[in-house]
Amino acid sequence: MSRTLPAEGLQTDVARILEAAGSAPAEAQQVAANLVLANLSGHDSHGVGMLPRYVDAVAEGGLKPNAEVRVNLDIGTLMGLDGQHGYGQVVGVQAMELGIARARQHGSCIFTLSHAHHLGRIGHFAEMATAQGLVAMHFVNVLSRPVVAPWGGGDGRFGTNPCCIGIPLAGADPFVLDYATSRVAQGKMRVAHNKGERVPDGYLIDENGAPTNDPGVVVVPQGNGLFGALMTFGEHKGYGMAVACELLGGALTGGGTWHRPADTSRTVLNGMLTVLIDPERLGTQASFEQEAREFVQWLRQSPPGQGFDEVQIAGEPERKARAARRKDGIWVDDATWGEIVAAGAKVGVTVTP
Question: Which residues on neighbouring strands pair with residue 205, listed in sequence order?
Answer without folding.
Answer: 211, 229
